[in-house]
Amino acid sequence: MVHLYSTSRYKVNKKNLIDFAQEILNGYYVAQVSALNIIFVGSRKMKKIALDYKGENVALPVLSFSYLHDPIKDTEQVIGEVVICYPQAVLLAAERDKKVEVMMKQLIEHGIKNIFSK
């Protein structure tokens, strides 16, 4: 199951992105009781997260956190989180001449791959 968190000021097609992420997860044969959180944040929040966890004082487009090796605490095990900086995704899409939603899907896919490679 995929959970997507975003504020109303970020224009995202939640259903489309959730379906896309679920399709990728299905390729990893993840149990139905597993959950993935996708979180859209602003530049300041991403900069703080990057500084706290990577020691980099920059707003990265995407960060992922894997919880695959954490003990199961709930009936729904969170396997990881993908944190996307919405403003960076928009800038990256413009820079690469792509639609914003296409860029978001690429960032989500990149984040999920990183969760399973850790």
Total helical elements: 4
Between the first and last Cα atoms, what is the distance in angstroms?
Answer: 20 Å
Gyration radius (Cα, Å) is: 14 Å
Relevant CATH superfamily: Metalloproteases ("zincins"), catalytic domain
Would you spell out the secondary-structure blueprint of this structure?
Layout: E1 2-5, H1 14-27, E2 34-41, H2 43-54, E3 62-66, E4 77-85, H3 86-95, H4 100-117
Parallel strand pairs: 1-2, 2-4
Antiparallel strand pairs: 3-4
Protein name: rRNA maturation RNase YbeY
Cofactor: Zn(2+)
Transmembrane segments: 20-41
Task: Characterize the structure shown.
The chain has one domain (about 1-115): 3-Layer(aba) Sandwich (Collagenase (Catalytic Domain)). The chain contains four helices and four strands, in the order E-H-E-H-E-E-H-H. The protein has helices at about 15-25, 45-55, 85-95, 100-115; strands at about 1-5, 35-40, 60-65, 75-85. A four-stranded mixed β-sheet has the order 1-2-4-3. Strand 1 (about 1-5), helix 1 and strand 2 (about 35-40) form a beta-alpha-beta unit. Helix 1 runs parallel beside helix 4 (about 100-115) and helix 3 (about 85-95) crosses helix 4. The chain is globular. The mean pLDDT is about 90.
Short description:
With 118 residues, this protein is an alpha/beta fold.
Tags for this entry?
Collagenase (Catalytic Domain); endonuclease activity; 46% helix; globular; 118 residues
